[in-house]
Amino acid sequence: MKEPNKFAEQVLDHTKSGKLLDLGCGLGADAIFFAETGFEVTALDFSKTGLEALKSRKGALAIEMIEADLKDDLSEFKDSGFDIVYSRLSLQYFSHDETSKIFSEIKRILKPAGWFFFMVKSTSDPEYGKGEKLENDVFVLDGYFQHFFSKKKILSNMTGFEMVLMEETKGELTTNHETVAWKIVAKKL
Ligand SMILES: C[S@@+](CC[C@H](N)C(=O)[O-])C[C@H]1O[C@@H](n2cnc3c(N)ncnc32)[C@H](O)[C@@H]1O
Q1: Domain-embedded: residue 129
Q2: How far apart are the CA of 63 and the centre of ligand 1, in A?
Q3: What residues contact residue 93 under an 8 Å CB cut-off, 6+ apart?
Q4: If you measure from the C-alpha of residue 168 to the centroid of ligand 1, how many angstroms do you get, rounded to a whole number?
Q5: What pLDDT, in 10s, does the model give residues 6-52?
Q6: Count of beta carbons in the 10 Å neighbourhood of residue 142
Q7: Domain that holds residue 39
Q8: What is the distance between the alpha carbons of residues 186 and 155, in angstroms, rounded to a whole number?
């Protein structure tokens, strides 16, 4: 069984229970970790393969799994329904307009004083600027869409949040040790 990511473990420094939405859960190692730790977990991804892997690995754990596109389908969630939204490297696949809409939906579905934990690639990442430019900071490289975030860009999407941690990290991804990503912990005001 894949170990949880370090970022998932760091969530426990801030909160240890509540309704948690994992956006873009992938194969679900972090969702399983959160459920084992005692969170009430909803895991969303548009990848059937990812969700099937999660289903076969989760055993008896009560994780709600949702196959949905996070750029269109967050409207299905009610206002203030979650204590925590967690998203590791899944919010970097969207245009500027889509990104603003997603961030504002995340704010809507979080309870007041709810936590928002996310990681996204930084404009300091070595792949920044490679491939075809679609918009400022948005490129397609080998068919792979990537939106890189500056500090200013992140902050522009975080009105209504207190920024608790904003840190650029390198070497944390097991898949690519050169990747530079922002690690963000924020609390809804
Ligand atoms: C880099 S992986 C990260 C997976 C997991 N969070 C992790 O840290 O291991 C990005 C995930 O985002 C999902 N994803 C990308 N675009 C999406 C979209 N529009 N709607 C839902 N999920 C999406 C992918 O299917 C993939 O599982």
Answers
A1: no
A2: 17
A3: 145, 146, 147
A4: 20
A5: 999 999 999 999 999 999 999 999 999 999 999 999 999 999 999 99
A6: 6
A7: 6-120+150-178+183-188
A8: 11
Count of domains forming the chain = 1
Question: Is residue 114 in a domain?
Answer: yes
Q: Which of 32, 46, 77 to mutate to test the pocket of ligand 1 (most atoms within 8 A of CB)?
A: 46
Q: Residue 73: pLDDT band by 50, 70, 90 thresholds?
A: confident
User: Cβ(122)–Cβ(93) under 8 Å?
Assistant: no
Pocket test of ligand 1: the residue of 45, 67, 148 to mutate, having most ligand atoms within 8 Å of its CB, is 45
Q: What is the DSSP string of 118-171?
A: EEEEBTTSTTTT-SEEEETTEEEETTEEEE-B-HHHHHHT-TTEEEEEEEEEES
Retrieve residue 3's tokens. 């170990």
CB 187 within 8 A of CB 164: yes
Query: In this structure, is residue 25 part of a structural domain?
Result: yes
Distance (Å) from CA 25 to ligand 1 centroid: 6
Residues with CB under 6 A from ligand 1: 5, 24-26, 45-47, 50, 69-71, 88-90, 93
Cα(89) to ligand 1 centroid in Å equals 7
